[in-house]
Amino acid sequence: MMRKRQEEFFDVCSRCKTGYSCCNDTTPPVTEERRRIIESYLKEKRVSIKDPFAKKEYVFPRLIEGGYCVFHDKKTRKCIIHSVKPETCVAGPITFDINIRSGKIEWFIKREKICQLAGIVLRDKERLEKHWSVAKEELLRLVKELDGKALAEILKKDEPETFKIGEDCLDEGVLSKLKGA
Ligand code: SF4
Ligand code: SF4
């Protein structure tokens, strides 16, 4: 059974004071499976949102007024699909890159100056390890599920103000998908 996703970090993010919002001007990738999960969650909660997803090179939650994600609640500053949100949203402030030459997935974390949560986990080794393992589980599933073109597009995104915390060998299937993209 999948463990609870990012439960202990929710309050930190809803009180984020960095002036940098993770839910603005952002297009987290949504796989077919994630879309199905989100749609059934919205149905179960009887939340009706017209066309919640948009698509360019990949599917992502539609952006609304002010550049906010359609699932961002302006009043509470919380995500209305928190328990089923996209993988990159769960993993934050941990992000990833893929180095095709070395065959590794590289892990990065945001700097504290742009993310309060990063500061909290970086000061507490146990919390960092715990969150990193959740982030790995989420992001490794994501890179497996995305098609090569979508993944290649996501890797073009710049992640400023982050630094590398480690790397792991990547599944050969993901690498060949990228080579063929
Ligand atoms: S992850 Fe960091 S920057 Fe994003 S909302 Fe949470 S505390 Fe703010
Ligand atoms: S899905 Fe939720 S956490 Fe992710 S960007 Fe949208 S509002 Fe923020």
Polypeptide structure, described:
This protein is α+β, with helices and mostly antiparallel strands. It has two domains: 22-84, no CATH class; 90-179, no CATH class. The chain has seven helices and seven strands, in the order ααββββαββαααβα. A hairpin with a 4-residue loop joins strand 5 and strand 6 (104-110). Bound molecules: iron/sulfur cluster (2 copies).
Summarize the structure.
With 181 residues, the protein is an alpha+beta fold.
Strand-residue fraction? Answer: 15-25%
Structural class: alpha+beta
H/E order of the elements? HHEEEEHEEHHHEH
Q: Please bin the fraction of helical residues.
A: 25-40%
Secondary structure blueprint with pairings:
Elements (H helix, E strand, L loop, with lengths): L9 H5 L17 H13 L8 E3 L3 E3 L10 E2 L4 E2 L7 H5 L2 E6 L4 E7 L5 H7 L2 H21 L2 H8 L6 E8 L2 H8 L2
The site of one iron/sulfur cluster has 13 residues, from loops.
Task: List the defining traits of the structure above.
single chain; 181 residues; alpha+beta; 2 domains; 3-stranded antiparallel sheet; two-stranded antiparallel ribbon; 7 helices; 7 strands; 37% helix; globular; binds iron/sulfur cluster
